[in-house]
Design a protein that fits this description.
Number of helices: 3
Number of strands: 0
Radius of gyration: 14 Å
Distance between the termini: 30 Å
Strand content: under 5%
Shape: elongated
Length: 69
Amino acid sequence: MKKDRKQELKNKSVAELREMAHTMYEELSRLRFDLRAGKTDVIKEIHKTKKELAFVLTRIHNHDHEENK
């Protein structure tokens, strides 16, 4: 993921990040379905989406822990 994208995600609110995570889960589901159906070779896109989703979930998790301190 590029630095610009990371910075963009860091500036988003938790509500926006949660909405993005939900959208990314749906996107992953669609990509996996397309891969199994043989429509396209989307392995790179799956990898990119999973990596970005992990970053978003980490930001949400860290924010939740900061609130509980």
